[in-house]
Amino acid sequence: MSPIPLNDLKRHNAPLATALKQASERVIDSGWYILGGEVTAFERDFAAYCGTASCIGVGNGTDALELALRALGIGPGDRVATVANAGMYASSAICAVGARPVFVDIDPLRLTIDPASLAAKITGRVKAVIVTHLYGRLADLAGVRAVCGDLPIIEDCAQAHGAERDGVRAGAFGALGCFSFFPTKNLGALGDGGAVVTSDPALAEALVSLRQYGWATKYQASRPGGRNSRLDEMQAAILRVKLPLLDGWNARRRAICARYRDALPDGAMPETGMDDVAHLAVARMKDRDAVQARLAGAGIQTAIHYPIADYDQPALRHLGLLQSLPETARALAEIVTLPCFPELTDAEVERVVEALA
């Protein structure tokens, strides 16, 4: 019996081979490889998809977060509130601009930011909040807004392409929405890529400058903090092929997670409605190690997203951020990621379900 992988990019991209090759050849034949027509077209289409006025393509998802912080003027001495269970991506961006993360505890079911914990952490030095829609699950944006007041909200949408609530899609709730197009994402390129979406013209203008050395005009760097972080033409062309298919892929991911949820104990996974695009099928298991061993014995790959809290990362320990976040600590000891990708067959899903029993 064939092993069941956590993800399978070859299976995902194989049906698109002809369209992807045609898109690649179009770019090669154009002779224009950076910030050309493909990027412009993708930025237009993705902004429309997200329901924002602008999309600015950048080099990757972490750059998207860093440049969003810089566009807001966040820098040394500032604090930015975020969660500690999301792989250190937001924290690394915060540290890159010279600010410091303030860690907030999580909701025990959805594993996203807990507004009540956030309210207790907001002080005068906190200048922004990064809300991570972890595993594809939209966080409680209404609750976050209620405690944030005028603080700008940056959405980390790297795992939530297409998630929506009350007709509003991920990226359109906050001042800025940051996306990754890493190949394993729900909308993935064939290399690195990222974007920031916004409906604020001033922030869009700042981001266009920041992604290219801080230029106001060519070779005139007028904005501090600029860098070289551009979505390239090849990846934009690939993403244009995939964007029209995203909603269908998300629907299949939801169906897989719903089947797992039905087979698991109550509270192991949240419901998968439109506000969850099931980027990762993450469940809570008190006997996680035994479950992983059992699935491995059945040829089923699992993983842990993510095993180390940001405040306990060796690279951040010198900042003295170690603190008590009880829900975060409990979740890290119990979470396990099950196979979930659009091409996973019903038979494979049932094999996973049987192994979980």
TrEMBL record:
Presence of keyword Metal-binding: no
Active-site residues annotated for this sequence: K185 (proton acceptor)
InterPro entries reported for this sequence: DegT/StrS_aminotransferase, PyrdxlP-dep_Trfase, PyrdxlP-dep_Trfase_major, PyrdxlP-dep_Trfase_small
Residue numbers bearing the N6-(pyridoxal phosphate)lysine modification: K185
One GO-annotated biological process of the protein: polysaccharide biosynthetic process
Alphabetical keyword list: Pyridoxal phosphate
Matches recorded under Pfam families: DegT_DnrJ_EryC1
Family statement: Belongs to the DegT/DnrJ/EryC1 family.
The species this protein was found in: Paramagnetospirillum kuznetsovii
MF GO annotations: pyridoxal phosphate binding; transaminase activity
Protein name per UniProt: Erythromycin biosynthesis sensory transduction protein eryC1
